[in-house]
Specification:
By secondary structure, this protein is of the alpha/beta class. It has 5 helices and 17 strands. About 20% of the residues lie in helices and about 20% in strands. It has a 7-stranded mixed beta sheet with strand order 1-2-9-10-7-4-5, with helices on both faces. It has a two-stranded antiparallel ribbon with strand order 3-11. Strand 9 and strand 10 form a beta hairpin. The radius of gyration is 19 Å and the shape is globular.
Length: about 325
């Protein structure tokens, strides 16, 4: 499956003035990879990370149902719940599922290792642009313009979610989403596209059959290793996977000099280093052994606000660089 890598861009000097106007950093979230390399050492490059209160504002561009918006909002509200950081969202029983907050604690550890206060994600606002004021084909620059409309202060993140009938430059062909910042110290932005009709096999796996899957020795052709979506909407449940990965990157590598491995113009960040891994025993084309909802059979690995279930990607352990699997 041809998946694009991340890019870093610099605004060129303005003509006739010779001054560098701004630095634009943009890291893409490639389409889901079915290749599971050994996780690399995710090194700290002594740059800024987001810490303390991290306000997040969301713009829904195009049509999203109230149910779809609730899936996203409950996920964001589950990252840093008030009070105890222990799991308060699991179902009753001796071994409740891990919480979304417990998954996010790995991001906290990265920020602590940088000598900063752990990030507390706050859902600051949610707005909608159902009329698609900039049209239904957006350049990356227009996405960044939409993010700027949210007016998020430095240290926060503006999230732009585009609907299924909105095409974005590079969507599907090179990325499922991206994060970046217009300048060092500015508010970050995250964009994630809805892949329901454009590329579900690339950007909504494992809730949709993967595109271009190559069957290896011993695997039955036609075997379906996909999972049922835990919230009954494979496209938005897939968006949450991409949003989770990009938010982790936006906090730990907001301006290109934080935590990553490899070329800074195509960094491997804390979630991208464990592609396609959601449960134990994952291999190409198989997301791993995850929990199954007893009522619906849907796959998930963490539980959030209101008991809502989610599937989140494995993150690289900041100490031993293994993939941390929520089980």
């Amino acid at each position: 499956m041809a998946c694009g890598s991340a890019t870093m861009k610099k605004l060129r000097q303005c003509a006739g003035c010779g001054l560098l106007l701004a630095l634009l950093v943009s890291f893409a979230r490639p389409c889901h990879s079915l290749y599971h390399p050994t996780p690399p050492v995710v090194a700290y490059h002594h740059g800024a990370v987001l810490d303390g209160a991290v306000p997040v504002s969301v713009l829904y561009y195009g049509t999203f149902s109230p149910h779809q918006k609730a899936i996203v909002a409950d996920f964001l509200l589950s990252l840093s719940p008030r009070g105890s950081r222990q799991n308060r969202f699991g179902v009753p029983g001796p071994a409740p599922p891990p919480s979304v907050a417990q998954w996010w604690e790995t991001v906290d550890r990265y920020v602590r290792k940088a000598g900063r206060e752990p990030p507390r994600v706050l859902l600051a606002s949610q707005v909608s642009d159902e009329a698609c004021s900039l049209g239904k084909y957006l350049s990356r620059a227009q996405v960044e313009h939409l993010a700027a409309r949210l007016g998020v202060a430095p240290g926060g993140v503006a999230v732009v979610l585009t609907a299924a009938d909105v095409a974005v430059e590079g969507f599907c062909s090179s990325a499922c989403g991206a994060h970046g910042a217009s300048a060092p110290g500015a508010a970050g932005h995250v964009w994630v596209g809805n892949a329901a009709v454009q590329c579900p096999g690339r950007c909504a796996w494992p809730f949709h059959t993967a595109e271009g899957f190559a069957y290896g020795p011993g695997q039955r052709r036609g075997r379906d290793e996909t999972l049922r979506a835990p919230n009954g909407d494979f496209s938005v449940d897939g968006m949450v996977i991409n949003l989770a990965e990009l938010l982790a990157g936006a906090v730990t590598n907001p301006y290109g000099h934080g935590y990553f491995q490899g070329d800074p113009s195509a960094p491997v960040e804390v979630a991208a280093a464990c592609p396609g891994v959601y449960g134990r025993g994952a291999y190409p084309g198989y997301p791993g052994a995850v929990r199954l909802d007893t009522a619906t059979g849907a796959g998930y690995n963490v539980v959030g606000r209101n008991g809502r279930k989610y599937l989140v990607p494995a993150l690289v352990d900041p100490d031993n660089y293994s993939c941390i699997i929520m089980a």
